[in-house]
Amino acid sequence: MKKSMFELARVVRSKNAGPYELTLDIIFKNEEDFNIVKEKNLINKTSIAEVYHIKEGEIENIIYFDPALAVKILLPRRIVSGSPGDSDVYGAQQHAPLLKLEFDI
Q: Which residues pair with 22 in a beta bridge?
């Protein structure tokens, strides 16, 4: 059965991790779904690279954090925060591609 990020996550957000990096956070609604996603490694560099249209090598880190039922993803910003052409100075609108993810659970 496929489950969307809307069904799985309580929180999906993004924010700056300094002017050059973004942190993406996914906090799951329940431990069962978090554990399945973690055990099957469903949130990985391939899946993130696909929805963000970047190379896997650009993804700096993906961390599963059990106590919070969360996944943290670290990406470089394409445009440095606050520089000309930056439309999201705080990085708070960069989580939307994560909402496209669906998993067989």
A: 16, 75
pTM of the model: 0.93
Kindly list the domain boundaries of the chain, sorted by start residue.
2-81+90-104
Sort 36 into a burial class: Cβ within 10 Å, 0-12 / 13-18 / 19+.
middle
Per-residue pLDDT of the chain (105 residues; tens, 9 = 90+): 899 999 999 999 999 999 999 999 999 999 999 999 999 999 999 999 999 999 999 999 999 999 999 999 999 998 999 999 999 999 999 999 999 999 998
- Both tokens assigned to 55: 């190379």
H helices, E strands: number in the chain: 3, 6
Class of domain 2-81+90-104: alpha beta
Sequence-separated (6 or more) residues with CB below 8 Å from residue 48:
24, 59, 62, 73, 75
